[in-house]
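Good morning,

Attaching, inline, the backbone tokens for the sequence recovery test we're adding to the shared suite. The designed sequence is right after.
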């Protein structure tokens, strides 16, 4: 995996506003927040995308992410928020180290804005894709 700003933060070479750390997970405030309290949650294990992360590191993030969400909500007084996780440059990943954003949504103008352009899933295509995914899980 290539060197990233997160690698440097994990080694203590770049300062950050740390909010949480354990054996597997590190969390800190985003320096370019979309809203107050915007927090990044990263695994200490190096992996560019979620599919490359070990089950152990993924489970560690899964265990702490709800607790961090509650803390951000309490600290900001914000009851609504988004969790964002991008994989690959076409999916808007800017730092090539797995990371989750906790983004409070205090007002319609602050926080994450999303454009959603849903398509349609014909039954035949759905069945074919379902079979491909099931086969890949074996």
């Amino acid at each position: 995996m290539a060197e990233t700003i997160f690698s440097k933060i994990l080694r203590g070479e770049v300062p950050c506003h740390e909010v949480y750390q354990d054996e597997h997970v590190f969390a800190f405030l985003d320096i370019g927040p979309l809203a107050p309290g915007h927090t990044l949650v990263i695994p200490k294990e190096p992996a560019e995308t979620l599919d490359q992360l070990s089950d152990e590191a993924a489970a560690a993030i899964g265990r702490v992410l709800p607790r961090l969400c509650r803390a951000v909500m309490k600290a900001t007084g914000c009851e609504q928020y988004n969790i964002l996780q991008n994989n690959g440059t076409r999916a808007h990943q800017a730092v090539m180290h797995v990371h989750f954003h906790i983004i409070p949504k205090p007002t319609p103008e602050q926080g994450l804005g999303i454009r959603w352009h849903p398509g349609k899933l014909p039954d035949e295509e759905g069945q074919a894709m379902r079979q491909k995914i099931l086969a890949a899980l074996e």
